[in-house]
């Protein structure tokens, strides 16, 4: 049935046949029905086949396979003797199928206000006896709903992603404009060396003046990232920025500067970014011609090389030489990313190339700073409500700190988390509802294939709801709406408090991510009063005193509170002004902060007037002044105290970790294991685990009693693998085979075992309990009908190990065996 | 290059278990491989400890392994049979756990919607786990990705021309575009196979599509296969995968496969989303190019081919002794000049009858890379 969808241009079929049947059938036509083979492959449209005949591949070529998947044989001859063993798609590539036209009649994706689609319960299975049209309708509905979910995901994720991108770009804005200024200055300098006249400009060779005019202005950009993946993003932004300012910009990567292909590759890549049309040869004179043809020649050509240290030094220096010769015709300015120090070019490039460079250093923001921006945007300031649980936050923090160290990967991890949330949480669309800010009406679940009753049931079955609101019996849309509004409000205030705390310790080289992890902890010292069900309690001073004394010196939150107490007046004023902005939504705090700001301002005014007075101060007035200063100190201390109490109150009253709020599952991603599995494939370990613990995956009944023994019914590969584990560093193939044989034919091998073991110098005279009580001795012979099957199984496994376990291991021993 | 990427550090060397005094139950057997793969994360300290245990075991095993004497047994003792016989037997082999494997495959069907979702959100799916994943992935594509064109690349094939593949993908994408806007006249197109790789990439990355959501899906069976192991191929695949209108699903089987990619490729181009999908299905197609190790092949086969080559040579060349230096040959009037000798030697080298290596003094020495039993079989055949 799959014939229509697959096109195989040619394929080789391995056909084995009984020898006597094939005798004399060379160059005859053979007909074979396409059949399902062991591997589950269905041979389809075959055009070419070859046959193993007798011992060797005799080139028995079956040239005609009909489109229906048949090999043609002359009429009269029986096809019984021929066994199509394996049809291999030996084509390097095939087209499995082309896009079906069904896409065109897919349900239009609108908000679907008045559409009367059949509401499908996501979790309920389809009734068994639906007719085909129903099934089709269900299918198309399903597709529609998944499209809607997709849309919701895209809306939520793109709002997060774009704001992260913006903030990163903003962070670099000053340095970008600094670079642009320098590019302009450099260009002016180059032009001042002289512009080629018409005659010079049309010649296909460079214009040469004195040595200074051969210098290339080079910006060395210290990216201060750990991973160059992050640099790529920065350089892409830089490219866009310079382009928007009118420069001609090209990006070259270190791959273009590989010693293998010479300088031609980077030239071609450079030309490819400027000159349109196909390039047969790459020559810098073409670049000069192109530049001359530009409408306005008052823009420089900026070439960005992302990671200079990874480039091949000789190619890079050749490239620099070439550019410097042509610099009057092609006013090129280099920007090179440097990962380590500004000395890097000196270490990489030869001196004659260095002489051609006129370098200047630029430094981007450090990675922790960038990270703080990202976290702040993604979790604390973001417009979408999507967030992650404490466990996930800790995982992502560790992933960043210990494993990856790149902002790009962190964002990617966040995207995976978000995508997983949308693919697993049936109520995820509420995030979209949050985003659209439709607080006053109940989320329209039916657009996403969920009836309202079903949505309510799902929502009120959430563990967080059950544990907090079990006393509420009337479960209506309004209840849900209230719950969601409350959730949103609490999440908002949590973010406010975290932001205020972060402002307080910003200067102390603190990572916002760490602070966030602490603030998210539902079991943390500050979360105890937000025990699910009793949130926003009036503060109880005695308990707060208690835990304050206990946790006095621990954690970033306490540190922030302490720091507020000790801040000098001017810094406190700055902090309070920042808080004033953040607390707008909580009037209670906002007014207090405002009052504090006013008092601090007054204090500052007084201080200034005092300072002015200081100049004209006379000895007699000193005393009075000192008293005045002491008064100012006192006032400051009072202000410090007030601010500290304020933040303390904020933390206790409003920093409710999202996991303590009812219905938080809607917006909070918590499947940390799933995230980890998707993010970090543990190839080696998992493959070995598959082989070792195959039973957990296959769940067969025959190997369940396995325990510590190797059973002949186990998959051959698992047996082989387990045996290989028992051997030494290198497995002797012979011994390995013998052990394998003894396992699969364990009944009659048990007695021989001891003897053969003592002879083998396998370093492990292991005590393996081979099953002697194998109930049916015939089982092995059923599995392996002839002795040579054992060889096959073994060979197949060895082939496997050549294929994927390692191509070295067996080969090594193989060689020692041979020599 | 292949050797560099897939270093012959035999994982089998740490496949074996660790025994302190010969007494060990499989429960206490630790899994040494993790000494080489950093544990994914360290939420708690327990894992660190575990890791330490792993590395300790590794060195323990190294010590033991080095001191152990090697077994001197040979494969020829097993009495291997003819390759054809093996192949025939392989056909008749009853696969184990057929039913369980089938139901395992069936169980993955429940994940198809999720896979489709992840693919559409822009991730590349990377399937790993024991067993052939070809049938599984293609089944997924045939059932869940019907609205997109799907191109399959078979990495297990020995050589793949990626340019051709790209041309095919571009054509498919072009068809898909054309089908969507039938009314607009197709602009004069330069045929794809005369375009440069960059042009093709630009076309697949381009903004020509009306809606950005449609794409062509590429399935790469064994992206770590021999046909794709070159860094150039991987770079090109990564560039293809990063195009706007391309999504990729790939399978890997080699434990070192992740070494093929740098972080740029993993995080920004392929954008892998890992799925552990052990299938325990036989690697029928994937392994077809690898020799059956216990076939009566290696020595017999090389002896056979050696005989054929030698018989087709001139009588003088045939009787060339093993360590024939020019002088010795000349003494026996086998060759008259260094040039003739060299041409013979070149001929031998081309047919792998002779190889050269450098001895301790730096002289080039020629030798026959055949085992003794192979040579013994060979000699009576050429000198009957």
TrEMBL record, chain A:
Residues 751-769 have a biased composition (Basic residues). Keywords: DNA replication, DNA-binding, Nucleus. It is found in: Nucleus. Residues 684-777 form the Origin recognition complex subunit 3 winged helix C-terminal domain. It comes from the Eukaryota. Residues 751-776 are annotated as: Disordered. InterPro entries: ORC3 (IPR020795), ORC3_N (IPR045667), ORC_WH_C (IPR040855), P-loop_NTPase (IPR027417). CDD domains: Orc3. Belongs to the ORC3 family. PANTHER family: ORIGIN RECOGNITION COMPLEX SUBUNIT 3 (PTHR12748). This is Origin recognition complex subunit 3. It comes from Linum tenue.
TrEMBL record, chain B:
Residues 101-277 form the Origin recognition complex subunit 2 RecA-like domain. The keyword Nucleus applies. GO terms for cellular component: nuclear origin of replication recognition complex. GO terms for biological process: DNA replication. It is found in: Nucleus. Residues 315-373 form the Origin recognition complex subunit 2 winged-helix domain. Its main location: nucleus. GO terms for molecular function: DNA replication origin binding. It comes from the Eukaryota. InterPro entries: ORC2, RecA-like_ORC2, WHD_ORC2. Keywords: DNA replication, Nucleus. Pfam families: RecA-like_ORC2 (PF04084), WHD_ORC2 (PF24882). Component of the origin recognition complex (ORC). Component of the origin recognition complex (ORC) that binds origins of replication. DNA-binding is ATP-dependent. ORC is required to assemble the pre-replication complex necessary to initiate DNA replication. Belongs to the ORC2 family. This is Origin recognition complex subunit 2. It comes from Linum tenue.
